[in-house]
Specification:
By secondary structure, this protein is α+β, with helices and mostly antiparallel strands. The protein contains 2 helices and 5 strands, in the order E-E-E-E-H-E-H. The radius of gyration is 17 Å and the shape is elongated.
């Protein structure tokens, strides 16, 4: 008997064994790819799972903010002056 795989939304924690309307995101520091649900791709290492467009959008916004934001100053270091 085949094991049933449950996927969990990375944003809200909702679980589903039949996530047909879900999205996946594959990304690294330079590239982000949004994919329609595909069982094989969903099992790939590093695949991120989202229960819908809104939660995929939350992750995309966070990824863009992290990659586009200037680095924060380190106030623990003496200033150069």
């Amino acid at each position: 008997m085949a094991a049933v795989i449950h996927y969990r939304c990375e944003i809200c924690g909702t679980e589903s064994s039949n996530p047909i309307h879900w999205f996946m995101i594959q990304c690294n520091s330079d590239e982000l790819k949004v994919l329609k649900w595909n069982d094989e791709a969903a099992k790939a290492p590093g695949a991120r799972h989202y229960c819908g467009e809104a939660h995929a959008g939350v992750y995309i916004s966070r990824w863009l903010e992290a990659s586009c934001s200037p680095s924060m100053p380190d106030f623990t270091q003496p200033s150069r002056g």
